[in-house]
Amino acid sequence: MLRIFYAVIRAFFPALALIRRGHFAKKHPEKYTDEENYRYLLENIEVMKKAANITTIVTGTENLPKEGSYVMFPNHQGKYDGIGLIGAHEKPCSVVIDEKRSRFPIVDEFITLINGFRLDRTSMRSQFEGITAITDEIKGGKRFIIFPEGKYNHNHNNVQQFRPGAFKCAIRAKCPIVPVALVDSYKPFEFNSIKPVQTQVHFLKPVMYEEYKDLTSQQIADKVRDAIVEKIVSVV
User: Fold this and answer.
1) pLDDT per position as a tens digit, 129-165
2) What angle do helix axes 2-10 and 34-51 make, rounded to 10 degrees?
3) Conformational region of residue 97, where left means phi above 0, alpha means psi within -120 to 50, and beta covers everything else
4) Which residues of 63-80 are buried (b: 16+ CB within 10 A; e: fewer)?
5) 3-state DSSP call for residue 160?
6) What confidence tens digit (pLDDT) does each residue in 30-60 have?
7) Is 0.85 surpassed by the pTM of this model?
8) Pair 155, 225: CB distance under 8 Å
């Protein structure tokens, strides 16, 4: 938490401007395009990273499909995961996030600017409707980030089991699945330190629909997890 307070103090006015932009975008969604909001967010992520003494190594951007929609499935380590991944992804994308977690200050505005999908995990009906809505958006060309572990729990660079249900949206949309390996992403906000820290984001080779159409959702989950684990082991 110390790094968060340190970053907000050092970048107070950009953080305040981000909050104001998020509030304005929520009330007047017609004023800015998704590309404008996303570009604004990327600029602010760089400011906040610098203020927080965080650098992120990014590899594999050439693996990202050049056209159309896809879903990225990263491992989950901590609060910096979404920031680090989105900051490494040039084209507009969105994220599926727990409704309650999405309402924290700055996080709320962040999610608003990328049109994030807030999912109520306490309601089965909400989850079913959410999967349908997300699938439709993917079919419409939108790119998403979905964390198949669901949550993190001080797991660091150890990857937990992936929930097969997290892949339903991609399967129904018949879109490419992009495994993403996050390394040391827990470090920025887990320790009470403001020392410089470095994280890694690795975009891995996508799994195309033709490759997974005959697999079960569990087999797909295992395939994606195995690719991520292999990458993490190779770099740590």
Assistant:
1) 888 999 999 999 999 999 999 888 889 999 999 999 9
2) 110
3) beta
4) ebeeeebbbbbbbbbbbb
5) coil
6) 888 999 999 999 999 999 999 999 999 999 9
7) yes
8) no
